[in-house]
Every structure is written in structure tokens, then in C-alpha cells.
Amino acid sequence: MRFGFAALLLAAAAAPTVAQDRKPPASNAELQKEKIEAAYANAPVEEREERSKGAVTVGGQRLPYTATAGTLTLRDLEGKPTASMFYTAYTLDGTKPGTKRPITFFYNGGPGSPTFWLHMGSFAPMRLRTGNPEFIRPAPYDFGPNPYTLLDKTDMVFLDAIGAGYSRPLGDMKPSAFYGTDEDADAFAKAILRYATKFGRWNSPKFLFGESYGTLRSGALAYQLQDRGMALNGVVLLSSIMNYGYRQPGLDQVYLNYLPSYAATAWYHNRLPNRPADVATIVQQARDFAVGPYMSALAKGQDISDAERDQVATRMSQLIGLSPDFIKRANLRIDLPRFQKELLRGSRQTIGRFDSRYTGTDSDAAGERPETDASSDAISGAFIATFSDYVTHTLGYKTDMPYRLSARDAAGWTWNWQHDAPNRMGKQNNPNTAVDLAAAMRANPYLQVLSMNGWYDMATPFFGTENDLGHMMLEPAQRPNLQFTYYPAGHMAYLNPEALAAMKRDLSAWYDRAVSVARSGTPPVAPSVGASEGPAQTPN
Fold first, then answer.
1. What kind of fold does domain 66-244+413-520 have according to CATH?
2. Which of 17, 136, 243, 431 is the most buried (most CB within 10 A)?
3. What is d(CA 466, CA 75) in angstroms, rounded to the nearest whole number?
């Protein structure tokens, strides 16, 4: 009894304290704020999967597949969810966990871009059909089965970067945790590891396929995955930029990198006085000039003689179609916007950046730079509209969240360009992940790398790619693992149907080779992949 009475006294004594600790009723303003926040559309912590069936015919063979639009939840080492990454996967029907069927992870670049460009335009079973380098007509768009899909060679997973598309940070995670060279690569590594674990793909031959900044991601990612126990079979680099160091103001390498692309563009638009029969010829002439007289002239800076300046400007004019006087007034250094504006100035037209085959018209024909990128304007509406319809009504992924066309559109966008290079090479302020890829290739003698390039890509010029990858300092035994192909196209080389067909042939042969090399246990001694305009090659 005494114990019970004491308990009552204690309860009575505690009652006022409980009442004092109770949260006061929320004001109308607070209730309204909570209601609004509760109505926000957020990325799911629980992983989503929306599955649908389809079929595509490749080379006379019908390929039934399952399309999965869903999310992967990324977690830290303690298991806390940190981000939700949206993906679309295409798997051949009958594929089971533990399969030895290849799988490829695709992504675009930006940084901060979602992957609907590659998804809608390249090698998925469904594709937006494109044609001439001109503005795609408004809806309805020509979207349907893709006879050039890679589904006959590999399952495919298209991943959106955190902050882009439907991918988002979770909980209290800040965007800065994902907006950076190494932070971004870490997120993709976690997503790929999660996918392999969830769907039983650890024993599948694994490939990366990156476009634009996605190639820089691939360099870091290949090393990070290998460091975490996932050795890759191959990496495809489409329209590469592996080294941002060359793009710093005051460095001459960027002018060397662009010269062969300028020559290819001048050839295409028929601006050369002695135009050769094919683009590869003028490109090789520009390559030879760039690493010889042009490099020597730029290295001399203001100390170059008048005679040498005149000689170099005259040869440049023959290669890139601008007047010697304009070239000399630019100190032999032609910035891209100036070239875009100057090449066709006489016809009051500009040329595109992503694809210099495209032309546009500015309001001011005397301006210094194009007012817009004609090659981007020509395709963006069609890609955005087609994906928006396809993901909702065919794939069945429905959400109130907006599909962000770029992570840069969100608040808090700042990209951390620092990169922690492997093997104690130290911090880089301007990342060069070709050194990461080289480290992965040295450790894994079976890792195959295919660099695919468009002659008319002015965003990531192919000669810059040759320079970046040609300085990985690979040993002779590893050099056959690195191959190059070239196409009559721009940055998104698959927009050109002729190029897409050639890319499909080259990739099919390359996948067969990469898989057979790993299965045979014998590193290759010579490349076997063809190229659309000349043999596959390793640059000097």
C-alpha cells in the first residue's frame, strides 16, 4: 500500500511538468506551412519498379524484353538512405539472376544532365528517329522500335545523375554531397553496385557507356568500381572530354585541339579552296599541321617573327576556311564562338556547337558570337516531348515530381571540380580522369576501351580526345585495348542515321571481342573493330 501511495504522489508531482512540456497548439500559419510541405512531391525512399513488356527485331531476330522504370536507393556505410537515383533498364526476357549476359550502364554528362538524350536517341529498343541536320518538325514525332538497339548484345540501364531527371537527395542530404567530380562518381558507383546486388548481375560482363562529361565520369568510375571489387569488361567513351585542365584561359592546347575539327567543318560547308574528296584527308592534314608548325608557332607567343606568322596564317586559312587577315588579327588563336560566327558570315549564317553541320541565323550578322546553338535548338523539343510521353504512358512511371532537364536548374547548384587522383597523385583543381582510366587498365589487362568520335563535334573535339587518351602512358601490352572510331556526325553522333548504323556495327564487334577476351583469358594483341571512315587506330 505504501508503494502504491508513493507512486500516486510521484505521478501527481510529475503531472504539471508533463503539461508544461506539451507542445502548444500550432498556429494557422504553421499548419498551412506543414500542409504545403506535406504536399511536396519527393523522391521515394522505398525503391520503385514499374515494369512493362516490349519487343524489337534486330537482324531478323525478334527480341522480347522487359522495361523497368524505377529508383535505386543509395545509402552510406551506416545504411542511412542518402539519395534516390532514377533509372530505366531493358533486359532480354529470360534473363535470370546470376546470368553471364552482358550489362551496360549508360549516362549523359553536363555535369548535371539527365540521360534522356542517350536513352531516346541511341541504342535503347525504342528510339526517336532523326535525319538531316535541320530543325526536327513539331509533333507528332517519329518514335518507334530501334533496329540499331544493342539489346542483342547487352542488357541496358540508363541512369540519371542525382539532382537531374527524377533523381534526388533524400532526407537532410545537401546537393553539395553529390555535385562534384568525385561526389558524382561515388553516387554512380553506389548505384551500379546496388543494381548488381539487387538484380543478381555480379557475374555478368559489365560495361560503362558515357557521353560528354559522362566520359570524364567513366574514367573516375572505372577506377572506383575496380577499387570496390567490380572489375569491368569495357568502357565506351562517346564524344569525350577527359581533361578539363586544357580549357583554362591562357593555355594554347585548346587551339591545337580544335584545329582538325575546324578543318572538318570547313570541308563539310565547302569553304576550302582545294577541297579533298573526303573529310578524313583534310583532318589528317590538320592533325599534322597542329602538332608541327602550329604548335611551334603558338609556343613562341609574342616573339614569333612576322614571316612565320604570315606563313602559319596562310596555311591555317587553307585548312579552316577563314581569311589569313582574320587569323592574324586573332593572334593565330581562333576561339570557338568566333569560328562559329565567321565561317559562314558571308551568307549571314552561324554553325552549331554540338554539331557543326547545323546552321542558324542570328538577328545581328555582324556579331562576335552566335546568339544560340542551332544544333541544340533543332533537337531539344523533340527529345523532351518524346521522353515525357514515353516515360509516363509507355513505361508507366508516374510522379508529381518534375523531371529536371538539368540539375543546374535547382537551387544550390555549385560544382566541385576538385578530383582526388589515384595512386597518391594528389588533388587536381581541374580534373583529368584519363589517369584514373589508365590506372584501371594497368591493373586489369582485360579492360577494353572504345573511343567513339564525331568529325563535326565542336563541344568535345576529337583531337582533344586523342591527346587526352594518347597521354595515358600505357605500356605496349595495353595499347591494343584502346581503340578509336570516327563518324560523319557531331557530339550526339547517333543523330545521323548513317553514323548510327556504323556505330552499331562497330559496337557489336567490340562487345564480342571484349567478352571473348575475358572468357579466353588471353589479353588481345591487335584491334579488330572497324571504323566508319578509316581503320580503328591509336593516335601517335
1. Rossmann fold (3.40.50)
2. 431
3. 37
